[in-house]
Automatic annotation (TrEMBL):
This protein's UniProt keywords: Signal
Signal peptide segment: 1-21
Family annotation (SUPFAM superfamilies): Cupredoxins
Full protein name: Copper oxidase
Organism: Methylomonas fluvii
Superkingdom of this protein's organism: Bacteria
Lineage: Bacteria, Pseudomonadati, Pseudomonadota, Gammaproteobacteria, Methylococcales
InterPro entries attached to this UniProt entry: Cupredoxin
Length: 298
């Protein structure tokens, strides 16, 4: 009788182990729908896969890397106020790296590892996307663009990013740190876990600092007509810069069509404008933070 119970217990344990192993599905036989879009009927998906096309400005693949990223509720336990998280919140690689991501979902719900801001001429919608419905693993490959830039990585399922499933991936030195990355950067709107009761006096916004009356500047003098010699000199300087920059531009946009070049230039211009606006915002904060000296009454 004891032997029978022991045998039954062993069979039950082996059955449970087999069921558990079966629950974690490896999605490696997905159908190719073109444009780097792979998927199967069991909830595995890869979008934006690129294994061999170099982004403009990359002469060669500088490195080949693989990472394994786990996603699930248990990884949020170290971040108070969150519900989901990746096991890593920051990644960094050389420009033009061929990167393979093995994404493992450990929850019984759908999770994603989605990277935004990639060049749209090469990656549809400007993103690389891994997705698994329920416990399972899916793998995908992309080639990172050149330059120093920080890319957002998150789960796009409703409220998953807001509940902690967010990270950043830096190419090269990165462009800047993204806000509200759990354990990496401060939250824009930090939660209060002090347990103190609400106090209107403490929680009221700080009073605004009085600002002195603006000084009206005198009207500018009429501008004289532009000398033709200045225009011609500017033209010469512009042509010289163009000849000097031509080899670099040819290398940067090698292999791109006219539409791809325009898209890349617009993306760089938008990035530059954003950087300038950040500088202006910082200057405004610095100026507004200083004490304003009131003018004496007459």
């Amino acid at each position: 009788m004891v032997k029978f119970v022991s045998l039954a217990t062993l069979v039950c344990a082996l059955s449970v182990t087999a069921v558990s192993a079966k629950e974690m599905q490896d999605h490696n036989q997905m159908m190719n729908h073109g444009d780097g879009h792979l998927m199967d009927m069991d909830g595995g998906m890869v979008m934006g896969q690129n294994t061999d096309t170099l982004p403009g400005g990359c002469d060669k693949i500088t490195a080949t890397k693989e990472i394994t990223v786990h996603a699930g509720h248990k990884y949020s336990e170290k971040f108070p106020g969150t519900m989901f998280a990746f096991d890593q919140q920051e990644f960094q690689f050389e420009p033009c790296t061929k990167l393979t991501v093995h994404f493992i979902n450990e929850d019984d719900i759908r999770h994603q590892w989605m990277m935004h801001g990639l060049p749209k001429y090469l990656y549809p919608k400007g993103m690389f996307h891994l997705e698994v419905s329920g416990p399972g693993k899916v793998s995908g490959t992309l080639i990172l663009p050149p330059g120093d830039k920080t890319y957002l990585v998150h789960c796009d399922i409703a409220q998953h990013m807001e509940k902690g499933m967010k990270a950043q991936l830096k190419v090269g030195k990165g462009s800047e740190d993204l806000p509200s990355i759990p354990g990496v950067t401060a939250a824009i709107f930090p939660d209060d876990y002090s347990g103190r009761p609400y106090d209107p006096k403490l929680d009221a916004p700080a009073p605004s600092t009085p600002v002195a009356a603006p000084v009206v500047a005198a009207a500018p003098a009429p501008v004289a007509a532009v000398d033709d010699s200045i225009v011609s000199g500017t033209t010469v300087v512009g042509l010289a810069i163009g000849f000097i920059a031509a080899p670099w531009l040819a290398k940067r946009f090698k292999g791109m069509s006219a539409g791809e070049i325009i898209a890349t230039v617009l993306e760089q211009v938008a990035h530059g404008v954003g950087y300038v606006m950040q500088l202006i915002g910082k200057l405004i904060k610095m100026v507004s933070g200083k004490n304003v000296i009131a003018l004496p009454d007459k």
